[in-house]
Amino acid sequence: MSRRPVAVPPGARAAVEVRAADLTAPGAMAAAVADADVVVHAVAHIAGGTTWRIEDGDAAAERVNVGLVRDLVGALAARPRREPATVLFAGAVSQAGPLDKDVLDGTETDRPAGEYDSQKLRAERLLLAADAEGVLRGVSLRLPTVFGYGPGSVARDKGVVTTMARRALAGDPITMWHDGTVRRDLLYSADAARAFVAAARHAGALSGRHWLLGTGRGEPLGAVFGQVAALAAEHTGRPPVPVVSVEPPAHAEPGDFRSVTVDASAFRAATGWRPEVPLAEALRRTVAFCAEGAERNLP
């Protein structure tokens, strides 16, 4: 289910039917999940096509980020009596809020600061309440900073790592709102996808709570962007673009300046999942995908 028609990835292991729909339309969610055994809910409101940041009281964002989960729960509750469907929800590590600790393990008390994280938390709570009522089996996977492309990518990555790869390939400086020592747990998209597959296979053990995903490593963003600049230079034949600090914009949030590392040992113990793609290789693939022009055809 997509906003627009997309190509089925080559080498797909199953028969794939792509449906383009506006899930906010009446009845659209119920039609989408009518016969589903497993639902992966990865819908989010992306303002202006480039950012997840939203203003307080943004009704359009609330309709997508929270309302669609409410529609999903209602649709599954209204189905004829059958084995409850498994719903995997793409949450965010940032739902916990800007905490005074660098390593998160999922035991934190949630105190989201921004509207996006508050909406994601409300949606997650709707899902887990439905799990407690027996309507569905709900699993929330809280994601860190996910980035990158694979050969079968069908949508444009709007995250910070790929954005900076585009800047470097265009010859523009890579900019940071800090001195580069701020760390992020960076998870490659293929490893994130494998985590959802693992969660579907172990839904019985996972349902009813949230789980954190991550690599267990906090990477200094200045060093990461330096790698991106060097990889881009290999494609352009020009010297690497500079990585520079700039004044943060007015819409910057406290979490933008805090380091985050994720301890995902609980999820690993329950499923056996672990990240497989080293950061250097993930960055190489991402920059190459952008440099080769493959993403120009992506919606």
List keywords for this structure.
two-stranded parallel sheet; four-stranded parallel sheet; alpha/beta; 12 strands; 9 helices; 299 residues; Rossmann fold
Task: Give your account of this protein's structure.
The protein has helices spanning 28-32, 59-78, 115-132, 160-170, 189-201, 203-206, 221-236, 265-271, 279-291; strands at 38-41, 86-92, 103-104, 137-143, 145-147, 174-176, 183-184, 186-188, 209-212, 219-220, 243-245, 261-262. The protein is α/β, with parallel strands linked by helices. The protein has a single domain, classed as NAD(P)-binding Rossmann-like Domain (Rossmann fold). It has a 4-stranded parallel β-sheet, sandwiched between helices. It is globular.
Low-confidence stretches: none
Instruction: Quickly count the helices.
Output: 9
Category from helices, strands and their pairing: alpha/beta
**CATH architecture designation:** 3-Layer(aba) Sandwich
Radius of gyration: 19 Å
**Helicity, in percent?**
25-40%
How is the secondary structure organized here?
Layout: H1 28-32, E1 38-41, H2 59-78, E2 86-92, E3 103-104, H3 115-132, E4 137-143, E5 145-147, H4 160-170, E6 174-176, E7 183-184, E8 186-188, H5 189-201, H6 203-206, E9 209-212, E10 219-220, H7 221-236, E11 243-245, E12 261-262, H8 265-271, H9 279-291
Parallel strand pairs: 1-2, 2-4, 3-12, 4-9, 5-8, 6-11
Antiparallel strand pairs: 7-10
Helix pairs in contact: 2-3, 4-7, 4-9, 7-9
Protein name: NAD-dependent epimerase/dehydratase domain-containing protein
Pfam families: Epimerase
InterPro entries: Epimerase_deHydtase (IPR001509), Lipid_A_modif_metabolic_enz (IPR050177), NAD(P)-bd_dom_sf (IPR036291)
